Amino acid sequence: MQRWKNFPHIPKHIHISPRLFLAAGLVALFVAIPLVYIFFRAFTGGTEVWMRLLQTRIWKLLANTILLTIAVTSGAALVGVSMAFLTERTNLPGRQLFRWMLALPLAIPAYIGGIVHLTLLRPRGGVIPQLLENWFGQPVPTPSPLGFWGAAFILTLFTYPYVYLLSAAAFRSLNASLEEASRTFGRNSWHTLWEVTLPALRPGLMAGALLVALDILAEYGTVALLRYETFSSAIFVQLSGRYDRSAASVLSGILITIAIIILWGELRLQGQARYTQLDSQWRPSVPLPLNRWKIPALLLVLLVASASLLVPVFVLGYWSITALLDPETLSSIMRSGSQNFGNYVWNSLWSSALAAFAAVVLSLPVALLSVRYPSKLSKAISRFSQIGYAIPGVVVALSLVLLVNQFLPFLYATPLIVVMAYVLRHMPQAIRASESALNQLSPSMEEASRTLGRTSLQTIFQVILPLILPGLMAGAALVFLTSLKELPATLLLRPAGFDTLAVRVWIWAEEGFYTQAAPAALLLVLASAWPLYFLLRREKIFK
């Protein structure tokens, strides 16, 4: 096969395959076009649109979005690290069970958790305020789930697992000698925690906080449900209510800029720091005795697990049983217009599965180029192909609406545009998984294959793919999981007659039919829990 030699920014000893470079470049272009087009529409939207938004909307939306992102990221970091510390570094009773209970809320979409807690806590008609009024004979003030504080509380409950999982893994891998050396030099437990343990957790903590921050920027369902306006909810209203694509493009451009700034800030804070432990000297830390703090710690962990997992699952289960036992409600659930419940399930499964397959396939050339031909250029292509982390679902939907209408009208109003949105939004997860799998595969295997006369393509299909298949399946499972839960892009792009479980849950809940929404919501949670379980077991996060 022909090679390109002395390609700019590529070391002279590396000969890059032109076909591989072209394939990876096309993937990066596939991701870049929507992003570039959004910025183009934003800057050409007209002075009038910019002035109107600057005078009326942008500053409030900017303040709301940044405040919510900071509050939830801080809350998720606090809850995630504290739960990881208690379950990994102390003698907390039932640690193994709590490890699973604290991870599983990741399978519950935040808007479904919001529906449950809104029903329980809303000031008028909420279950808890009514119970308290019946007990005390008069209204009792309770915290409202609406507005900023309600949104921050509920989003923290369902995003802290990002930080928890990465922090727990870091706690388990931490060498006991580090903390012992700190105590030898006179540091007490508190100083050791702040000066030794937390700095060692920094990579995992920063990665988890980054995921939370970008997730909050992309969140639509929860903030819309709890009546707290952010950029995502405002863009959705501009598209679905006012049909003002110029204003939506301007707001989308600002939102993407915020996300890129957060990505850049994370890279700057992370810097070039590396934390390396020698396996030959590694040994696990001895669990710290909680002593008199054992009961308070147990209650705290149980409170977090209950609010984020047990209460939502119990409420959804109770509503589902109630709905299934009522013939009229059951009838409305099983058929709505020309669709039945089976259609919602099938649409969710096949669209998410197709998106997972496509994302993994597209991730391969990018991962191969990045891992096997390391250079500034290949790393830049890999980074750029993962910009989907910074593009909220509502922005992806807007970019596809604009592009498909103008250049690919035959795709408009088809389910394929929904699948395309899933791929654009979640492909970074597939790329990370593919790169991780390839990094664990020795290049000598490929060299041996070529020595035996296999071509590059034969080596890929006969050697590389079979060996990295478990890693690719993990990436596919993650894309499948997140695509199942995707709400704003599906709402905006779905053709008539194409509803998914997430869409039906949202439509019924928005109309106040929580009992009708419960079976679909519960099934969505169970469907999301399976790939999450697979990922946790495969990565040996929990035994």
Characterize the structure shown.
With 543 residues, this protein is mainly alpha-helical. It has two domains: 12-44 and 335-543, MetI-like (MetI-like fold); 68-325, MetI-like (MetI-like fold). It contains 23 helices and two strands. It has helices at 18-43, 47-56, 58-89, 95-103, 110-121, 127-136, 147-173, 176-184, 189-218, 221-225, 231-240, 245-270, 294-325, 327-334, 341-372, 376-385, 393-407, 415-439, 443-451, 456-485, 488-493, 501-510, 514-538, and strands spanning 335-336, 339-340. It has a two-stranded antiparallel sheet with strand order 1-2. Strand 1 (335-336) and strand 2 (339-340) form a beta hairpin. Helix 13 packs across helix 23 (514-538). The longest helix has 32 residues, at 58-89. The radius of gyration is 25 Å and the shape is globular. Mean pLDDT is 79; it is low at 1-14.
Q: Report the β-strand fraction as a percent range.
A: under 5%
Total discrete domains: 2
Using the alpha-carbon principal axes, give the shape.
globular
- Level-2 CATH architecture of the largest domain: Orthogonal Bundle
The largest sheet, given as strand count, sense and whether it forms a barrel, is: 2 strands, antiparallel
> pLDDT below 50 for ≥5 consecutive residues: which ranges?
1-14
Task: Give Rg in angstroms.
Answer: 25 Å
The CATH class of the largest domain is: Mainly Alpha
